[in-house]
Design goal:
By secondary structure, the chain is an all-alpha fold. The chain contains 20 helices and no strands.
Protein backbone atom coordinates (compact mmCIF):
# COMPACT_ATOMS: atom_id res chain seq x y z
CA UNK A 1 0.00 0.00 0.00
CA UNK A 2 1.33 3.48 -0.86
CA UNK A 3 2.10 5.81 2.02
CA UNK A 4 -0.76 8.19 2.80
CA UNK A 5 1.40 11.21 2.04
CA UNK A 6 2.04 9.88 -1.46
CA UNK A 7 -1.63 9.69 -2.33
CA UNK A 8 -3.18 12.62 -4.22
CA UNK A 9 -4.55 15.27 -1.91
CA UNK A 10 -8.34 15.24 -1.70
CA UNK A 11 -8.62 18.87 -2.85
CA UNK A 12 -6.43 18.17 -5.88
CA UNK A 13 -8.42 15.04 -6.69
CA UNK A 14 -11.74 16.89 -6.52
CA UNK A 15 -10.43 19.60 -8.86
CA UNK A 16 -8.98 17.08 -11.29
CA UNK A 17 -11.63 14.37 -11.22
CA UNK A 18 -14.40 14.44 -13.77
CA UNK A 19 -13.38 13.51 -17.32
CA UNK A 20 -12.65 9.88 -16.39
CA UNK A 21 -15.73 9.43 -14.23
CA UNK A 22 -18.07 11.08 -16.77
CA UNK A 23 -16.80 9.04 -19.70
CA UNK A 24 -17.13 5.83 -17.68
CA UNK A 25 -20.69 6.68 -16.62
CA UNK A 26 -21.44 7.28 -20.29
CA UNK A 27 -19.78 3.96 -21.11
CA UNK A 28 -22.69 2.22 -19.38
CA UNK A 29 -25.07 3.68 -21.94
CA UNK A 30 -28.36 2.21 -23.14
CA UNK A 31 -26.67 -0.04 -25.68
CA UNK A 32 -24.19 -1.35 -23.13
CA UNK A 33 -26.85 -2.01 -20.50
CA UNK A 34 -29.13 -3.80 -22.95
CA UNK A 35 -26.21 -5.88 -24.20
CA UNK A 36 -25.39 -6.85 -20.60
CA UNK A 37 -29.06 -7.62 -19.92
CA UNK A 38 -29.34 -9.78 -23.02
CA UNK A 39 -26.12 -11.56 -22.00
CA UNK A 40 -27.58 -12.43 -18.60
CA UNK A 41 -30.96 -13.35 -20.03
CA UNK A 42 -29.57 -15.78 -22.58
CA UNK A 43 -26.44 -17.14 -20.92
CA UNK A 44 -26.97 -16.67 -17.21
CA UNK A 45 -23.87 -15.57 -15.31
CA UNK A 46 -21.34 -17.03 -17.77
CA UNK A 47 -20.41 -13.64 -19.24
CA UNK A 48 -19.91 -12.00 -15.83
CA UNK A 49 -16.24 -12.96 -15.74
CA UNK A 50 -15.75 -11.03 -18.98
CA UNK A 51 -17.13 -7.90 -17.30
CA UNK A 52 -14.55 -8.28 -14.54
CA UNK A 53 -11.69 -8.86 -16.98
CA UNK A 54 -12.69 -5.72 -18.89
CA UNK A 55 -11.93 -3.45 -15.90
CA UNK A 56 -8.13 -3.37 -16.43
CA UNK A 57 -8.56 -3.37 -20.21
CA UNK A 58 -10.88 -0.36 -20.04
CA UNK A 59 -8.49 1.44 -17.70
CA UNK A 60 -5.43 0.76 -19.88
CA UNK A 61 -7.15 2.13 -22.99
CA UNK A 62 -8.46 5.28 -21.34
CA UNK A 63 -5.21 5.87 -19.43
CA UNK A 64 -3.59 6.47 -22.80
CA UNK A 65 -5.98 9.37 -23.40
CA UNK A 66 -5.00 10.80 -19.99
CA UNK A 67 -1.35 10.57 -20.97
CA UNK A 68 -1.93 12.22 -24.36
CA UNK A 69 -4.24 14.96 -23.12
CA UNK A 70 -2.19 16.03 -20.11
CA UNK A 71 1.15 15.82 -21.95
CA UNK A 72 0.16 17.71 -25.11
CA UNK A 73 -2.90 19.87 -24.33
CA UNK A 74 -4.39 18.69 -27.64
CA UNK A 75 -7.49 16.71 -28.59
CA UNK A 76 -7.27 13.25 -30.11
CA UNK A 77 -8.12 14.23 -33.69
CA UNK A 78 -5.81 17.23 -33.52
CA UNK A 79 -2.88 15.02 -32.49
CA UNK A 80 -3.57 12.57 -35.31
CA UNK A 81 -3.69 15.45 -37.80
CA UNK A 82 -0.43 16.90 -36.47
CA UNK A 83 1.52 13.62 -36.55
CA UNK A 84 -0.07 11.57 -39.33
CA UNK A 85 -1.74 14.16 -41.57
CA UNK A 86 -5.32 15.23 -42.34
CA UNK A 87 -6.26 12.04 -44.23
CA UNK A 88 -5.74 9.83 -41.17
CA UNK A 89 -7.43 12.44 -39.00
CA UNK A 90 -10.52 12.31 -41.20
CA UNK A 91 -10.45 8.50 -41.34
CA UNK A 92 -10.36 8.40 -37.55
CA UNK A 93 -13.16 10.96 -37.33
CA UNK A 94 -15.24 8.93 -39.80
CA UNK A 95 -14.99 5.96 -37.43
CA UNK A 96 -16.07 8.24 -34.60
CA UNK A 97 -19.07 9.45 -36.63
CA UNK A 98 -20.20 5.90 -37.43
CA UNK A 99 -19.96 4.81 -33.79
CA UNK A 100 -21.41 8.11 -32.55
CA UNK A 101 -24.48 8.05 -34.77
CA UNK A 102 -25.30 4.53 -33.64
CA UNK A 103 -24.88 5.53 -30.00
CA UNK A 104 -26.99 8.70 -30.31
CA UNK A 105 -29.86 6.75 -31.89
CA UNK A 106 -29.77 4.04 -29.23
CA UNK A 107 -29.74 6.57 -26.36
CA UNK A 108 -32.85 8.30 -27.69
CA UNK A 109 -34.42 4.91 -28.38
CA UNK A 110 -33.89 3.95 -24.75
CA UNK A 111 -35.55 7.15 -23.55
CA UNK A 112 -38.43 6.64 -25.95
CA UNK A 113 -38.80 3.04 -24.81
CA UNK A 114 -39.06 4.07 -21.15
CA UNK A 115 -41.53 6.77 -22.16
CA UNK A 116 -43.63 4.13 -23.93
CA UNK A 117 -43.66 1.98 -20.77
CA UNK A 118 -45.17 4.85 -18.76
CA UNK A 119 -47.40 6.22 -21.53
CA UNK A 120 -45.35 9.38 -22.15
CA UNK A 121 -45.81 10.79 -25.68
CA UNK A 122 -42.72 10.54 -27.87
CA UNK A 123 -42.75 14.30 -28.40
CA UNK A 124 -42.01 14.62 -24.67
CA UNK A 125 -39.74 11.59 -24.14
CA UNK A 126 -37.55 12.66 -27.07
CA UNK A 127 -38.02 16.43 -27.15
CA UNK A 128 -37.50 17.16 -23.44
CA UNK A 129 -34.06 15.54 -23.05
CA UNK A 130 -32.93 17.05 -26.36
CA UNK A 131 -33.99 20.53 -25.19
CA UNK A 132 -32.33 20.07 -21.79
CA UNK A 133 -29.07 18.97 -23.40
CA UNK A 134 -29.02 21.89 -25.81
CA UNK A 135 -29.81 24.33 -23.00
CA UNK A 136 -27.09 22.89 -20.76
CA UNK A 137 -24.32 22.95 -23.36
CA UNK A 138 -25.23 26.24 -25.05
CA UNK A 139 -25.44 28.17 -21.77
CA UNK A 140 -22.96 26.37 -19.51
CA UNK A 141 -19.22 26.13 -18.97
CA UNK A 142 -17.26 22.89 -19.07
CA UNK A 143 -17.45 22.67 -15.27
CA UNK A 144 -21.25 22.96 -15.17
CA UNK A 145 -21.69 20.37 -17.91
CA UNK A 146 -19.40 17.98 -16.03
CA UNK A 147 -21.13 18.42 -12.65
CA UNK A 148 -24.58 17.84 -14.16
CA UNK A 149 -23.35 14.74 -16.01
CA UNK A 150 -21.92 13.22 -12.80
CA UNK A 151 -25.03 14.07 -10.75
CA UNK A 152 -27.34 12.45 -13.31
CA UNK A 153 -25.01 9.53 -14.05
CA UNK A 154 -24.82 8.40 -10.44
CA UNK A 155 -28.48 7.40 -10.69
CA UNK A 156 -27.20 4.44 -12.72
CA UNK A 157 -26.17 2.91 -9.39
CA UNK A 158 -29.81 1.87 -8.96
CA UNK A 159 -28.88 -1.15 -11.08
CA UNK A 160 -26.70 -2.41 -8.23
CA UNK A 161 -29.76 -2.28 -5.98
CA UNK A 162 -31.73 -4.10 -8.65
CA UNK A 163 -29.11 -6.87 -8.75
CA UNK A 164 -29.24 -7.26 -4.96
CA UNK A 165 -33.05 -7.35 -4.99
CA UNK A 166 -32.96 -10.12 -7.60
CA UNK A 167 -31.28 -12.37 -4.97
CA UNK A 168 -28.79 -14.18 -7.21
CA UNK A 169 -27.34 -17.48 -6.02
CA UNK A 170 -23.60 -16.95 -5.30
CA UNK A 171 -22.90 -20.62 -5.95
CA UNK A 172 -24.43 -20.38 -9.41
CA UNK A 173 -22.32 -17.31 -10.17
CA UNK A 174 -19.06 -19.02 -9.18
CA UNK A 175 -19.99 -22.21 -11.04
CA UNK A 176 -20.73 -20.24 -14.21
CA UNK A 177 -17.08 -19.18 -14.51
CA UNK A 178 -16.21 -22.76 -15.45
CA UNK A 179 -18.96 -23.09 -18.06
CA UNK A 180 -18.38 -20.84 -21.06
CA UNK A 181 -19.86 -22.19 -24.30
CA UNK A 182 -17.15 -20.72 -26.55
CA UNK A 183 -18.13 -23.19 -29.26
CA UNK A 184 -21.48 -21.45 -29.73
CA UNK A 185 -21.33 -18.68 -32.36
CA UNK A 186 -24.12 -16.65 -30.75
CA UNK A 187 -22.15 -16.67 -27.49
CA UNK A 188 -19.07 -15.40 -29.30
CA UNK A 189 -21.13 -12.63 -30.91
CA UNK A 190 -22.17 -11.49 -27.44
CA UNK A 191 -18.52 -11.54 -26.34
CA UNK A 192 -17.77 -9.12 -29.19
CA UNK A 193 -20.81 -7.03 -28.32
CA UNK A 194 -19.74 -6.78 -24.68
CA UNK A 195 -16.22 -5.75 -25.68
CA UNK A 196 -17.68 -3.18 -28.07
CA UNK A 197 -20.01 -2.03 -25.30
CA UNK A 198 -17.07 -1.22 -23.04
CA UNK A 199 -14.41 0.18 -25.41
CA UNK A 200 -15.81 2.72 -27.87
CA UNK A 201 -14.15 5.28 -30.19
CA UNK A 202 -16.13 8.21 -28.81
CA UNK A 203 -14.75 7.55 -25.32
CA UNK A 204 -11.21 8.14 -26.58
CA UNK A 205 -12.13 11.42 -28.28
CA UNK A 206 -14.23 12.63 -25.36
CA UNK A 207 -11.84 12.04 -22.47
CA UNK A 208 -8.81 13.52 -24.20
CA UNK A 209 -10.73 16.64 -25.24
CA UNK A 210 -12.38 16.96 -21.81
CA UNK A 211 -8.95 16.90 -20.17
CA UNK A 212 -7.83 19.69 -22.51
CA UNK A 213 -11.02 21.74 -22.01
CA UNK A 214 -10.68 21.40 -18.24
CA UNK A 215 -7.12 22.71 -18.45
CA UNK A 216 -5.39 19.67 -16.94
CA UNK A 217 -1.65 19.35 -17.50
CA UNK A 218 1.02 16.74 -16.87
CA UNK A 219 1.07 17.68 -13.17
CA UNK A 220 -2.52 16.40 -12.98
CA UNK A 221 -1.84 13.10 -14.77
CA UNK A 222 -1.62 11.04 -11.60
CA UNK A 223 -4.97 12.14 -10.19
CA UNK A 224 -6.54 11.94 -13.65
CA UNK A 225 -5.46 8.28 -13.78
CA UNK A 226 -7.08 7.65 -10.40
CA UNK A 227 -10.26 9.34 -11.68
CA UNK A 228 -10.16 6.99 -14.68
CA UNK A 229 -9.59 3.87 -12.59
CA UNK A 230 -12.44 4.65 -10.19
CA UNK A 231 -14.69 5.29 -13.16
CA UNK A 232 -13.71 2.00 -14.79
CA UNK A 233 -14.59 0.06 -11.63
CA UNK A 234 -17.95 1.83 -11.30
CA UNK A 235 -18.71 1.26 -14.98
CA UNK A 236 -18.12 -2.48 -14.79
CA UNK A 237 -19.97 -2.78 -11.48
CA UNK A 238 -23.02 -1.34 -13.21
CA UNK A 239 -22.57 -3.64 -16.23
CA UNK A 240 -22.11 -6.65 -13.95
CA UNK A 241 -25.14 -5.66 -11.88
CA UNK A 242 -27.50 -5.49 -14.84
CA UNK A 243 -26.17 -8.83 -16.11
CA UNK A 244 -26.70 -10.44 -12.69
CA UNK A 245 -30.18 -8.96 -12.36
CA UNK A 246 -31.12 -10.22 -15.83
CA UNK A 247 -29.69 -13.69 -15.19
CA UNK A 248 -31.48 -14.01 -11.85
CA UNK A 249 -34.85 -12.83 -13.21
CA UNK A 250 -35.24 -13.09 -16.97
CA UNK A 251 -32.82 -16.00 -17.31
CA UNK A 252 -34.32 -17.96 -14.42
CA UNK A 253 -37.83 -17.40 -15.78
CA UNK A 254 -36.80 -18.75 -19.18
CA UNK A 255 -37.58 -15.50 -20.96
CA UNK A 256 -34.11 -15.00 -22.41
CA UNK A 257 -34.72 -16.71 -25.71
CA UNK A 258 -33.03 -15.65 -28.92
CA UNK A 259 -35.78 -13.23 -29.94
CA UNK A 260 -37.65 -12.86 -26.66
CA UNK A 261 -36.46 -9.37 -25.72
CA UNK A 262 -37.15 -6.85 -28.44
CA UNK A 263 -37.99 -3.61 -26.63
CA UNK A 264 -37.05 -1.69 -23.52
CA UNK A 265 -40.55 -2.48 -22.29
CA UNK A 266 -39.80 -6.21 -22.47
CA UNK A 267 -36.70 -5.67 -20.34
CA UNK A 268 -38.42 -3.39 -17.83
CA UNK A 269 -41.29 -5.84 -17.44
CA UNK A 270 -38.92 -8.75 -16.97
CA UNK A 271 -37.27 -7.11 -13.95
CA UNK A 272 -40.55 -6.66 -12.07
CA UNK A 273 -40.34 -9.99 -10.18
CA UNK A 274 -37.48 -8.55 -8.13
CA UNK A 275 -39.15 -5.34 -6.96
CA UNK A 276 -42.80 -5.64 -7.94
CA UNK A 277 -44.63 -4.46 -11.09
CA UNK A 278 -44.49 -0.70 -10.45
CA UNK A 279 -41.25 -0.22 -8.52
CA UNK A 280 -39.27 -2.55 -10.78
CA UNK A 281 -40.24 -0.53 -13.85
CA UNK A 282 -39.51 2.79 -12.11
CA UNK A 283 -36.05 1.71 -10.93
CA UNK A 284 -35.16 0.30 -14.34
CA UNK A 285 -36.53 3.42 -16.03
CA UNK A 286 -34.53 5.80 -13.81
CA UNK A 287 -31.33 3.90 -14.56
CA UNK A 288 -31.90 3.81 -18.31
CA UNK A 289 -32.83 7.51 -18.55
CA UNK A 290 -29.79 8.54 -16.48
CA UNK A 291 -27.49 6.38 -18.62
CA UNK A 292 -28.98 7.71 -21.84
CA UNK A 293 -28.76 11.38 -20.81
CA UNK A 294 -25.09 11.19 -19.81
CA UNK A 295 -24.16 9.20 -22.91
CA UNK A 296 -26.01 11.61 -25.22
CA UNK A 297 -24.06 14.48 -23.71
CA UNK A 298 -20.70 12.69 -23.99
CA UNK A 299 -21.17 11.30 -27.50
CA UNK A 300 -22.47 14.57 -28.94
CA UNK A 301 -19.60 16.49 -27.33
CA UNK A 302 -17.09 13.94 -28.64
CA UNK A 303 -18.42 14.45 -32.18
CA UNK A 304 -18.31 18.24 -31.78
CA UNK A 305 -14.81 18.27 -30.28
CA UNK A 306 -13.61 15.79 -32.91
CA UNK A 307 -14.90 17.97 -35.74
CA UNK A 308 -13.05 20.94 -34.30
CA UNK A 309 -9.90 18.82 -33.99
CA UNK A 310 -9.78 17.73 -37.62
CA UNK A 311 -10.87 21.08 -39.09
CA UNK A 312 -8.86 23.36 -36.80
CA UNK A 313 -11.93 25.42 -35.91
CA UNK A 314 -12.59 26.73 -32.37
CA UNK A 315 -14.06 23.96 -30.21
CA UNK A 316 -14.34 24.58 -26.49
CA UNK A 317 -17.14 24.80 -23.94
CA UNK A 318 -15.29 27.81 -22.55
CA UNK A 319 -16.13 29.66 -25.78
CA UNK A 320 -19.57 31.03 -26.62
CA UNK A 321 -21.65 29.83 -29.58
CA UNK A 322 -20.61 33.00 -31.43
CA UNK A 323 -16.93 32.20 -30.86
CA UNK A 324 -17.23 28.51 -31.80
CA UNK A 325 -20.22 28.18 -34.16
CA UNK A 326 -19.02 24.94 -35.80
CA UNK A 327 -18.57 23.25 -32.41
CA UNK A 328 -22.02 24.16 -31.11
CA UNK A 329 -23.61 23.60 -34.53
CA UNK A 330 -22.24 20.05 -34.69
CA UNK A 331 -23.51 19.34 -31.18
CA UNK A 332 -26.99 20.63 -31.99
CA UNK A 333 -27.12 18.77 -35.32
CA UNK A 334 -26.38 15.35 -33.87
CA UNK A 335 -28.76 15.79 -30.93
CA UNK A 336 -31.69 16.94 -33.08
CA UNK A 337 -30.99 14.40 -35.83
CA UNK A 338 -30.86 11.57 -33.29
CA UNK A 339 -34.20 12.53 -31.75
CA UNK A 340 -35.84 12.64 -35.18
CA UNK A 341 -34.26 9.42 -36.48
CA UNK A 342 -35.37 7.33 -33.52
CA UNK A 343 -38.93 7.37 -34.83
CA UNK A 344 -37.81 4.81 -37.42
CA UNK A 345 -36.40 2.30 -34.89
CA UNK A 346 -38.38 -0.92 -34.39
CA UNK A 347 -36.28 -3.65 -32.74
CA UNK A 348 -34.34 -1.79 -30.07
CA UNK A 349 -32.49 -4.74 -28.56
CA UNK A 350 -31.28 -5.98 -31.94
CA UNK A 351 -30.22 -2.43 -32.86
CA UNK A 352 -28.24 -2.00 -29.65
CA UNK A 353 -26.37 -5.27 -29.98
CA UNK A 354 -25.61 -4.49 -33.64
CA UNK A 355 -24.19 -1.10 -32.63
CA UNK A 356 -21.94 -2.69 -30.01
CA UNK A 357 -20.68 -5.28 -32.51
CA UNK A 358 -19.97 -2.37 -34.89
CA UNK A 359 -17.93 -0.72 -32.12
CA UNK A 360 -15.92 -3.93 -31.88
CA UNK A 361 -15.30 -3.79 -35.64
CA UNK A 362 -13.88 -0.26 -35.26
CA UNK A 363 -11.50 -1.27 -32.45
CA UNK A 364 -8.41 -1.92 -34.66
CA UNK A 365 -8.58 1.61 -36.09
CA UNK A 366 -9.32 3.33 -32.78
CA UNK A 367 -6.80 1.41 -30.68
CA UNK A 368 -4.15 1.37 -33.41
CA UNK A 369 -4.00 5.15 -33.71
CA UNK A 370 -4.25 5.60 -29.94
CA UNK A 371 -1.30 3.30 -29.28
CA UNK A 372 0.77 4.87 -32.06
CA UNK A 373 0.30 8.30 -30.51
CA UNK A 374 1.04 7.08 -26.98
CA UNK A 375 4.24 5.29 -28.00
CA UNK A 376 5.64 7.68 -30.62
CA UNK A 377 4.06 11.14 -30.50
CA UNK A 378 4.98 12.15 -26.96
CA UNK A 379 8.25 13.37 -25.41
CA UNK A 380 10.47 10.41 -24.51
CA UNK A 381 9.85 10.65 -20.76
CA UNK A 382 6.05 10.66 -21.19
CA UNK A 383 5.64 7.90 -23.73
CA UNK A 384 4.34 4.42 -23.03
CA UNK A 385 7.53 2.39 -22.85
CA UNK A 386 9.30 -0.54 -21.24
CA UNK A 387 7.29 -3.44 -19.84
CA UNK A 388 4.09 -1.39 -19.74
CA UNK A 389 4.29 -0.87 -23.51
CA UNK A 390 4.22 -4.64 -24.02
CA UNK A 391 1.32 -4.94 -21.60
CA UNK A 392 -0.59 -2.39 -23.70
CA UNK A 393 0.30 -4.25 -26.91
CA UNK A 394 -0.70 -7.62 -25.47
CA UNK A 395 -3.97 -6.48 -23.90
CA UNK A 396 -5.00 -4.55 -27.01
CA UNK A 397 -4.08 -7.40 -29.33
CA UNK A 398 -6.06 -9.98 -27.37
CA UNK A 399 -9.04 -7.65 -27.05
CA UNK A 400 -9.11 -6.97 -30.78
CA UNK A 401 -8.69 -10.68 -31.57
CA UNK A 402 -11.66 -11.72 -29.41
CA UNK A 403 -13.73 -8.85 -30.79
CA UNK A 404 -12.96 -9.78 -34.41
CA UNK A 405 -13.93 -13.43 -33.86
CA UNK A 406 -17.32 -12.26 -32.61
CA UNK A 407 -17.71 -9.84 -35.49
CA UNK A 408 -16.95 -12.58 -38.03
CA UNK A 409 -19.48 -14.82 -36.29
CA UNK A 410 -22.02 -12.05 -36.47
CA UNK A 411 -21.72 -11.72 -40.24
CA UNK A 412 -21.65 -15.49 -40.75
CA UNK A 413 -18.02 -15.89 -41.78
CA UNK A 414 -17.18 -18.34 -38.96
Amino acid sequence: MPHAASLPRLSTLLKTAGPGLVVMLADTDVGSLITAAQSGARWGYSLLLLQILLVPILYIVQELTVRLGTATGRGHGELIRAHYGPIWAWISYAGLVVAGIGAIVTEFSGMAGIGDVFGVPRLVSLGLPAALLLGLVFTGSYRRVEVVAIAVGLFELVFIGLAIAARPNPGDIVASFAHMPLGDSSYRVLIAANIGAVIMPWMIFYQQSAIVDKGLGWDHARTARLDTFVGAVISQCVMGAILIAAAATIGQAGQGTKNGLETVGDLAGAFTPALGPWLGQVVFGVGIVAAAFVALNVVALALAWGFGDVTGRPHSLEQSPREAPAFYGTFALVVVAGAVTVQLVTNLVALNIAVEVLNALLLPLALGLLILLATRALPEDRRVRGAYKWVVYGVSGLTVAFAMVGVLDGVGLL
